[in-house]
């Protein structure tokens, strides 16, 4: 019998998670380095007895540590089960207008999926021919909110803070969500805008810059007004979204920020070296402020190179037949040794 009420939706397609130990896995922008020593210590010494209890509803230990580190107040922070959780809650909490929400046509694929899932009207604004966000497209437009990843993904391109501010300033009647998943790899955070604007909501994650993708912790930073709205939605849905182990380990990660500054600087250096090597092979490489590069191969189609690399146990991301992206591969930055091996394997194709 035909059933009523079943939802049909095209889900977000995440990068594959192959389990082969020998492979070079540079397809989902995970950190090239292990979690910090303090995180591993916190895991080893975690007292399992406490798991009998629910986790802390307010997550004050983690929020206080983040507040101290970021120079904001506790009531400006919400934590969640990865930044995907925080972003989904932000869409539910802040984007309830009848006007279309604006985001770039090439950006984090989940934005469109959430807009569909939550039945939020949206408009995808084309990037320029250089894959840049065009500031004026977001100014003097009637809209129900704006979502921008900065640096953008999967382009890797960072948008100058003064231009982000212009967008925020011109849209003070709606919320502007700024996804800073990659901000630790070279960009400049929009955090200072919080002092002047209460319509900015910034999201961050421990997945990329803190090498904790498997732990699932992310957070949002905004005015106390926005945080109280999103907290009410969170508590209407899944109040205990950050478990006790996750909170303890994420707190340890914030305490170890100096370790992360060091390894992330190393990743940025490797990225610049790798980009130069690809360019020397004639590849186009977009200027990246992240731990990945978007590149258009020369002398071989993107899809063929993707398949060739996979045959050599090197996993990168190919987005398939998706308009402008179909000529490009997104390659996460692994260790210097891994990236040297990738250059060697690609170079061998052309001798
Ligand atoms: C990885 C990523 C996220 C999601 O991160 P999680 O915290 O692992 O859910 C959000 N936005 C962008 C742009 C990302 O690349």
UniProtKB/TrEMBL annotation:
GO terms for biological process: L-histidine biosynthetic process. Pathway: Amino-acid biosynthesis; L-histidine biosynthesis; L-histidine from 5-phospho-alpha-D-ribose 1-diphosphate: step 7/9. One of its GO terms (molecular function) is histidinol-phosphate transaminase activity. Its cofactor is pyridoxal 5'-phosphate. Transmembrane segments: none annotated. CDD domains: AAT_like. InterPro entries: Aminotransferase_I/II_large (IPR004839), HisP_aminotrans (IPR005861), HistidinolP_aminotransfase (IPR050106), PyrdxlP-dep_Trfase (IPR015424), PyrdxlP-dep_Trfase_major (IPR015421), PyrdxlP-dep_Trfase_small (IPR015422). It is an enzyme of class 2 (transferase). Its EC number is 2.6.1.9. Keywords: Amino-acid biosynthesis, Aminotransferase, Histidine biosynthesis, Pyridoxal phosphate, Transferase. Residues 21-346 form the Aminotransferase class I/classII large domain. It holds the Pfam family Aminotran_1_2. It catalyses: L-histidinol phosphate + 2-oxoglutarate = 3-(imidazol-4-yl)-2-oxopropyl phosphate + L-glutamate. The modification N6-(pyridoxal phosphate)lysine is found at residue 208. Belongs to the class-II pyridoxal-phosphate-dependent aminotransferase family. Histidinol-phosphate aminotransferase subfamily. Homodimer. This is Histidinol-phosphate aminotransferase. It comes from Pseudolactococcus laudensis. The lineage of its organism: Bacteria, Bacillati, Bacillota, Bacilli, Lactobacillales.
């Amino acid at each position: 019998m035909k059933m009523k009420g079943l939802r049909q939706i095209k889900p977000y397609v995440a990068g594959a998670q192959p389990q082969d130990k020998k492979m070079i896995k540079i397809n989902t922008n995970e950190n090239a380095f292990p979690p910090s020593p303090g995180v591993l210590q916190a895991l080893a010494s975690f007292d399992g007895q406490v798991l009998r209890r629910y986790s802390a509803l307010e997550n004050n230990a983690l929020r206080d540590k983040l507040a101290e580190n970021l120079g904001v107040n506790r009531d400006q922070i919400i934590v969640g089960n990865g930044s995907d959780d925080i972003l989904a809650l932000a869409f539910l909490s802040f984007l309830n207008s009848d006007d279309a929400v604006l985001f770039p046509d090439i950006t984090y694929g989940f934005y469109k999926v959430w807009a569909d899932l939550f039945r939020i009207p949206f408009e995808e604004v084309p990037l320029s021919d250089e894959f840049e966000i065009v500031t004026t497209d977001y100014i003097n437009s009637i809209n129900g909110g704006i979502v921008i990843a900065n640096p953008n993904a999967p382009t890797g391109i960072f948008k100058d803070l003064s231009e982000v501010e212009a967008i925020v300033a011109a849209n003070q009647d709606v919320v502007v969500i700024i996804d800073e998943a990659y901000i630790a790899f070279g960009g400049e955070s929009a955090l200072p805008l919080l002092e002047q604007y209460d319509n900015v909501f910034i999201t961050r994650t421990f997945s990329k810059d803190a090498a904790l993708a498997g732990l699932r912790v992310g957070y949002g930073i905004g005015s106390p007004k926005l945080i109280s709205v999103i907290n009410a939605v969170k508590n209407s849905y899944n109040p205990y979204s950050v478990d006790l182990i996750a909170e303890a380990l994420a707190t340890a990660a914030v305490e170890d920020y100096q370790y992360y500054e060091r390894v992330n600087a190393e990743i940025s250096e490797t990225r610049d070296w790798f980009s130069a090597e690809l360019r020397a092979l004639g590849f186009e490489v977009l200027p990246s402020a992240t731990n990945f590069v978007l590149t258009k191969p020369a002398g071989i189609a993107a899809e063929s190179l993707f398949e060739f690399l996979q045959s050599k146990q090197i996993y990168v991301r190919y987005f398939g037949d998706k308009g402008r992206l179909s000529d490009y591969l997104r390659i996460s930055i692994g260790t210097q040794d891994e990236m040297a091996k990738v250059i060697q394997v690609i170079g061998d194709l052309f001798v």
